[in-house]
Amino acid sequence: MGRDPWAFGLTKANRNTLATALRYAREQGLISGTPDLSELFIDIPESVLEGVPGY
Amino acid sequence: MARIPLTLTCGDYEITRLLTEGAVTADGIDLTVLTDIASRDRHWRLARNGECDAGEFNAFGYFMAKERGHPFIALPVFPHRRFRHGFVFVNPTKGIRTPRDLIGRRIGVEGYQTAGCVWMKGILEEFFGVPHREITWVLPRPEDIPFTPPPGLRIEYAAGDKTDEEMLTGGEIDALITPQVPAAFRRGDKRIARLFPDYKDREIEYFRQTGIFPIMHLVVIRREIVERHPWIPANLARAFHVAKSMTYDRIRNPRVVPLAWFGNA
Fold this sequence. Notes:
The complex is a heterodimer. Chain A is mostly helical.
């Protein structure tokens, strides 16, 4: 699963996962719209996460 | 210079523990962490009562809350992720052998909006041809985010005090999608079985096919705090990240983990 399976930030894999989650939410009638991820999240730049031991 | 006080609710996870127990601090923030709230309560206490400044929250509850104008915004910090094929249970006397045998049945869920249940409803529909509208969903209680089901969706609230697994073993529901492994299953009760006994292989295959490690929970913070202190989200996210990374670093040494063959799985 790669070096960071529990990745934070709006990485490509997380965007894909969240897009599927939003699609399921809409299909199941929980939400009516399709919000953009930038409306839902304060993105955290990769630079904020750099320079950490173990990462 | 005083640090900004912030209350945070978060569950008990190895990747967050160094932060929630205080070994890792968030720069500029004086955190009070509440870890001792059961997952179910944590969500409604944040959603309905707004009791904390920030906290771990069901991703789907958040999508709903956002659309309904609740005063929170999310950080892309995901404390809880889990594959869910292993969390569909059936009563073996009901003749359910394949996923499509679930069509037309009564399935218990902890909540229609519970993250693990939404993911598994979606996966059953997308990959196994089980439309969520052809199931009767049986819920134990009202939802965290008040919700009017779309027309045609069959939702029932369970009568009486039985738990969802008692309803399954008693035959009142045919199957159960639950965030936890039911106690009756752990005890070896023969009236409860996994729909996918080979769930680990299924989950590995699902990950290979989709690249998805399903996100259950994210972290939300009150919008007014971000407006007042725009640096807080990045510093809080970094603190979660430091805690997680230090945990990765620590468990790379299998000596510290009380599991034989850990790291070879």
